[in-house]
Structures are given as C-alpha cells and as structure tokens.
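Write out this protein's structure.
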Amino acid sequence: MSLSFVNKVQECARFIQERMQVRPVAGMITGTGLSDTLTDLVVHQVFPYAGLPHFPQATVDSHKGSLVQGTLNGRDLLVFQGRIHMYEGYSPQLVTFPVRLLQALGVPMLILTNAAGGINLDFSAGDIMLIRDHINLTGQNPLAGPHEESFGLRFPDMTRVYDPDLGRCLVDIAAQEKIQLHAGVYAGLLGPSLETPAETRFLKNSGADAVGFSTVMEAIAGVQAGMKILGVSLITNINDPDAPEQTTLEAVVGTAAKASDKLNRMITGFVGQLA
C-alpha cells in the first residue's frame, strides 16, 4: 500500500533527525538564482534532494537541489537551496513538502526568498522588497482536498501571513547595513510564461508591487503550520506595461547573483537577532 503524503513527510523527517543533532531556529527556501546567497553560512551537512526519502526533485537549472544544515551568525539553520514549483508539474501539496518537513522537525520560523519582476516603477533591478502581503493568482491552494488535522486548521486566518515583528527586524538590519529595502505586495502566478503587458497592467491595478511564480503556496502552508514567516523578493527586472522590455531567465539569474550579497548581509544580520 502506498504511503500517504503525511507519512512520506514523517519518514523524510526521521531520516534527517537521525543525522542531525541540532534544532534549527529557522528554515529558509531560496529563489531563482539565490541558492548560494548565504555566503556566511557555515555548512555542517548537505542532503541532496535526490537522497531524501520522497522529496520532490528541483528540475530548474538555477535551483541547486540540496538541503543544507548549517550555522549562520551563531544560529542553526536549515536552508533549501532551490525550490519546487507548480510550473514544473508538481501539485500544490508537493510544492509545500519543504514546509511540511520543517513543521515535522519542529522548526518555528520560515524565511522565503524569491526572484521577482518589479511592477512598482519606483523599484529598480537589484532592489530588495520585504513582502508585506501577497495575492494568490495561481488558482491553486495547498490546503484544498482532504484535510490533514496534524497540519493545522482547516480554514487558517490569512490576515497576518508575514509576521510584522520579523519585518520590522529586517527593516532595522537593512538600515544598519545601509541597504535600501522596499516593502510591498507580491503577486504569485502559476508560470512559467512571463507576463504580457496587459497582465502586468492588471497586476499593477490590483495593488501588486512585484510578481513571481513561487512563495504563496509555501506561505499558505506555513500559516497553517503556525510558523512565523519572513518573505523577501529580490527584484530582477522592471515590468512597465507602457514600455515593455523583453527578459530572459539568464538575465534574471544574473541580476540575482549580482544583488545576492545585499541579501546575504540582511539575512545574516536578521538571523543573528533570533532567540
């Protein structure tokens, strides 16, 4: 008989617990081109996704596909270097496997990073945005289907997805590091095709400041799991519907790489403030 999703998560969690003697204060999922963002991370163990029981495989070149257990600024972390997307053919449930794994391991905090297109024309490529809220435009939800009581409430409240206290902490760190930090709303789409000018105009009118193909599924699962969530977007290009410019994955990855030092400094300082 095939294992249920929750049993697969538990089996993967046991595999990691048998090999890890620490309890991380947070888990982090990295976005496109951001797998190696945390250059200050002291790596203790690396678990390739291919070696983790039941773990879905990252199929996008810019997502490394490894779970790293390490220490950052004196705090123990689990870092998923590369994420799983629905546009790869995965279900919303499988996209949230990393979040459910952190939940099973008792990790209380989730840091979500992504590479995003800027819709707010006050932004520039290479800027960083603190996610204050999101708009789920994927037409999907990881909580749909049979309810698993061990995961949390069937109808979790979504009025405070991204923890305000964590956001204020990141704002303070950015000021200390003299890094400009915007704040705004992230729109999550299914992808992988990029937005048309008409779609960009719609997103702008809906109140979105940035757009991407990730994050919202993981955030929803994190809320149900009772985690505190910090969300950060690295703006890789600007989408102006009145002056559209073509972009490529290679350009997105290149911009992410150039700006990742700022993100490393911010996350390193932020993690150092955690209890």
